Amino acid sequence: MENQNNVTEFVFMGLWGNKQMELLFFVFFLLCYLVILMGNFLILLTITCSHLIEQPMYYFLCHLSLMDLCYTSTVVPRLIRDLVSARKNISYNNCMAQLFTAHLLGCVEIFILVSMALDRYVAIVKPLHYMVLMNRRRCNMLVFMAWGVGFWHSVALLLVVLHLPFCRPNQIDHYTCDVKPLLKLVCKDIHVVNILMIANTGMVVVAVFLVLVASYILILYNLRTHSSVGRCKALSTCSSHVMVVILFFVPSIYVYVLPAGSENKDKEVSVFYTVIAPMMNPLIYTLRNMEMRIAMGKLWSKMAHSKFC
Q1: Are 172 and 220 in contact (CB under 8 A)?
Q2: What pLDDT sits at residue 309?
Q3: Per the confidence metrics, is the pTM higher than 0.90?
Q4: For residue 292, which phi and psi values (nearest 5 degrees)?
Q5: What distance in Å separates the CA atoms of residue 281 and residue 247, rounded to the nearest whole number?
Q6: What is the 3-state secondary structure (H, E, C) of the chain?
């Protein structure tokens, strides 16, 4: 424990050591972040300013977009800055704050996706009871539960990391403060901590992913009794959800199930759930969703009308 205060700041090694490569990806990640901001803000504006907010599916989608905005904003702006900075440093306190915030928002997003899967399951398997089972009170409860689980997960993770003694060199082989690259800097045997990390994060991600897969298999099974039109509509909605789940969960499982110290591509793979998935979500939910496209058209028409009147 006496070594814990030996490190007052960390230095990110970043994604690549090549300066020309970093300048190229500075432009790429900047454009990605702008797409994330505009796309998710457009979804939030469209849903909150239309009748769609009354539907549970779009209520959860609104929260998913908010989580994407907040989650990426804890990671991507610093990544973009560091790509053109000579020194990629972060203080110990800011590192711990980023670790806590990123895991809190990421965990909330995971359980929002679970809520969306539950919503689709009830809508398809029990359509006659849908409005009763998925009323606004129950939707609010699911969102509050997501925040509660996310908070306790992040607090538990932070308490473990805060009690670890870090030593120099203080270079984090990553572009963000995450638990696995931080464990590589610990001055003691991390076997037990590795098990706790995998149990707290890795196994939770795997369990939730399996639950989501099982829910969509049940949905597909129950679609047999629906009409061809109903099947097509349900499959269109569910396929969008499945794409989002795969984009987010498969890279997360790769990163958090393997123990720290393994020779793997953690920082490269993590780009998928920190940048690519939040950027693709608005495209998946708008381009493949007729109701969203119609609502957006009405919103733009209303805004244009109010501007010229």
Answers
A1: no
A2: 45
A3: no
A4: -65, -40
A5: 9
A6: CCCHHHCCEEEECCCCCCHHHHHHHHHHHHHHHHHHHHHHHHHHHHHHCCHHHHCHHHHHHHHHHHHHHHHHHHHHHHHHHHHCCCCCEEEHHHHHHHHHHHHHHHHHHHHHHHHHHHHHHHHHHCHHHHHHHCCHHHHHHHHHHHHHHHHHHHHHHHHHHHCCCECCCCEECCCCCCHHHHHCCECCCCHHHHHHHHHHHHHHHHHHHHHHHHHHHHHHHHHHHCCHHHHHHHHHHHHHHHHHHHHHHHHHHHHHHCCCCCCCCHHHHCHHHHHHHHHHHHHHHHHCCHHHHHHHHHHHHHHHHHHHC
Taking alpha carbons only, the member of 139, 160, 138, 153 closest to residue 108 is: 153
The CB-based long-range contact list for 288-292 (8 Å cut-off, 24+ gap) reads 288/236, 288/239, 288/240, 289/236, 289/237, 289/240, 291/52, 291/58, 292/43, 292/46, 292/52, 292/58
pLDDT tens digits along 155-196:
999 998 888 888 777 888 889 999 888 888 888 877 888 888
Q: How far apart are CA 201 and CA 209, in angstroms?
A: 12
